[in-house]
Amino acid sequence: MTSKLEARQKARQDDIIAAARRCFRNSGFHAASMSQIAAEAKLSVGQIYRYFANKDAIIEEMIRRIIDYRIAEMEGKTQTKLMPHLLACRFTLSEDDDALMLEMSAEATRNPQVAAWLAEADERMFNNACTMLQKEHPHLSPERVRCCVEVIAVMMEGSIYRRLTPQKVSPEALEKIYQEIINMLITAK
Amino acid sequence: MTSKLEARQKARQDDIIAAARRCFRNSGFHAASMSQIAAEAKLSVGQIYRYFANKDAIIEEMIRRIIDYRIAEMEGKTQTKLMPHLLACRFTLSEDDDALMLEMSAEATRNPQVAAWLAEADERMFNNACTMLQKEHPHLSPERVRCCVEVIAVMMEGSIYRRLTPQKVSPEALEKIYQEIINMLITAK
C-alpha cells in the first residue's frame, strides 16, 4: 500500500516539475506563477501545495534533478578523452536544461536563494568531476585536479553559452586546439 | 539650435536606457513593461514612444551600447598579455552589463528577435577581436586567429558565467594554466 501511494506521489511530483519547466521555458522565471504551474499540470493550486510549499521549493527540486542527470551522464565515462570533441561541437545533454539553468542564473543575480542553490549545485558537480578526474589520472596532485576541473568547467559553460550564437570556426580545427589544451592540463604537475 | 535639440534628445534617450536597465535588473525581462520603464524614467508612456517604438527597440539599443563599451575597452590593449590574469581573477568590466546580457540570453532561447540581436552583437565583438589579435600577432594565419578568438571567447564567457558561484581554486594557480593556454594559442601555426 505504502509503495503504491509513494509511486503515485512521485508521479504527481514529476508532473508538477515537468509543468513548471514548460512554464519557465515559455514565459520566463517571473511570469510563471504557482497558479500557472498548477494550470499547466492540470491540478488545483491546493493540490500543488501538497507537494511543494512554494515556487522556490519547485525550483530547488528542478535544479537538483538537472544536476543529478548531469552527474549520472558523466559517470563511468573517460571525460578527458571525449572532452575535445564535445567542446568543439558544442555538445549539450539537453537544450532545455541549459535554457532553464540560464534562466535560473539570470534570476540568481537578484535572488540570493536561487544563487545559493546554484552554488550548491555547482559544488556537487565540481566535487564529482574532481573525484572522477583523480581516478582517471592518479598521477595528478589534488590541487592540480581542482585546477583542471575549473578550467574544463569554464570551457564547458562557455561553450554552452556560445551555442546561442552561430559557430564561427570549423569544429575540426577547434577540436585539435581543445585536444592540445586537455593534453596540457593532464600532464603531470 | 539643432545641436542643442540633439543633445536634449540624446540625454532623454540615455535616461530611458538607464531606467530600462534598472527595471530589467530588478524584475527580469518579462516583468519590465513599457509603462514600468516610463515610470522609472519619470516620463509618460507617450514621451517614451517618441524615442523608442517599443520595448524591443529599447533592448536593441541597450545591447548595442553594452557591446560598444566592450569594444572600446578592448581597443589599444594587448589582449593576450592581460588575458591570463583577467581570466584567473574572473575580471568583468561591469557586473550589471553581465547580468543584463544573461537576462537577454535567457530571453533569446524563446525570442528569435533577441537571439538575432545577440548574434549580431557577438559577430561584431568577434570580428573586432580578430582584427586586434591579427595585428598583435601577424604571423598567425587568419584561420588560426579566428580559432584563437573563439577559444578565448569561450573562456571569457565561461569565466563570467562562473562568477555566479564561488571560486574553488587559487587565482595564482589558474593564472599559470591560462598563461600556458594563451602561449599555446598564439604559437605560430
Describe this structure in words.
Two copies of one chain form a homodimer. Chain A has 189 residues and is mostly helical. Helix content of chain A is 79%, strand content 0%. In chain A, helix 1 (2-31) packs across helix 2 and helix 1 packs across helix 4 (55-74). The longest helix of chain A is centred in the N-terminal third of the chain and has 30 residues, at 2-31. Chain A is elongated.
Model regions low in confidence, pLDDT < 50 over at least 5 residues of chain A: none
CATH level-3 fold name of the largest domain in chain A: Tetracycline Repressor, domain 2
Quote the average pLDDT of chain A. 93
What's the helix count of chain A? 9
Provide the CATH top-level class of the largest domain in chain A: Mainly Alpha
Q: What attributes does this structure have?
A:
2 domains, Tetracycline Repressor, domain 2, 9 helices, mainly alpha, homodimer, Arc Repressor Mutant, subunit A, 189 residues, 0% strand
What's the helix and strand layout?
2 copies of one chain form a homodimer.
Chain A: H1 2-31, H2 34-40, H3 45-51, H4 55-74, H5 79-88, H6 95-108, H7 112-136, H8 142-162, H9 171-185
Helix pairs in contact in A: 1-2, 1-4, 1-6, 4-7, 5-9, 6-7, 7-8
Keywords (chains A, B): DNA-binding
Protein name (chains A, B): HTH-type transcriptional regulator BetI
DNA-binding region (chains A, B): 33-52
Can I get a quick summary?
Chains A, B: It comes from Pseudocitrobacter corydidari. Two copies of one chain form a homodimer. Chain A is mainly alpha-helical.
